[in-house]
Amino acid sequence: MLAAIPAFLNMRGAIFSSFGARISTRLHIGELEPVYRLKGLALEEILASFTLGISQSVLIGIFAYLVSLCMGVNPSLLYLLGIFAFAGFLSNVIMITITFFSDIWLYRRGIDPDNVIGPYITTVGDTIGLLTIIASAKVLGL
User: Fold this and answer.
1) Residue 112 — left, alpha, or beta (φ > 0 → left; ψ -120 to 50 → alpha)?
2) What is the model's pTM?
3) How far apart are CA 69 and CA 19, in angstroms?
4) What residues contact residue 105 under an 8 Å CB cut-off, 6+ apart?
5) Using an 8 Å Cβ cutoff, are 140 and 79 in contact?
6) pLDDT for the residue 128
7) What gap in Å lies between CA 82 and CA 105, rounded to an integer?
8) Upper half-sphere CA count for residue 46 (Cβ side, 13 Å)
9) How many Å is the Cα radius of gyration of the chain?
10) How far apart are CA 125 and CA 34, in angstroms?
């Protein structure tokens, strides 16, 4: 499981900094109103990022299983999939909320979200990702 944590954290940063950039671009070109409502294009972007986050979490769970087998450890595939899928779900919900509302908040204050959201979200994503992995392991009984 430890071998997959860096991949999980990196994936969170990549998905949600990209999500933040897409929301920011839509704000700048006028396709998205700077309001705190999840509808239309904002909802499409959220669903796309959520789907990508869950699918990548499952793939990372499989990766963790295969790496463990190569190292001579025989973990439960369902357990690893459960940990990473649940952590992916939790972190998706938290990160989508933080990213979307941060983008809108920054834009409404005249700050270009493109200059702030990338470093901010990757840092927050590392923290949230690690906490959700720990929470998932606790919930599933590690």
Assistant:
1) beta
2) 0.89
3) 34
4) none
5) yes
6) 96
7) 34
8) 18
9) 16
10) 23
Tell me the two tokens of residue 79.
Answer: 């357990």
Residue that has been written with the tokens 């998905």 in this structure: 15
Q: pLDDT band at residue 116, thresholds of 50, 70 and 90?
A: very high
As a whole number of angstroms, the distance between CA 140 and CA 85 comes to 11
Return the percentage of the chain with pLDDT > 90, whole number: 78
d(CA 13, CA 115): 15
> Which CATH number fits the domain that encloses residue 73?
1.10.357.20
The conformation of residue 135, written as its DSSP 8-state character, comes to H
Q: How many domains does the chain have?
A: 1
In sequence order, what DSSP letters do the residues of 5-68 get, joined into one string?
HHHHHHHHHHHHHHHHHHHHHHHHTTSS-SSS---HHHHHHHHHHHHHHHHHHHHHHHHHHHHH
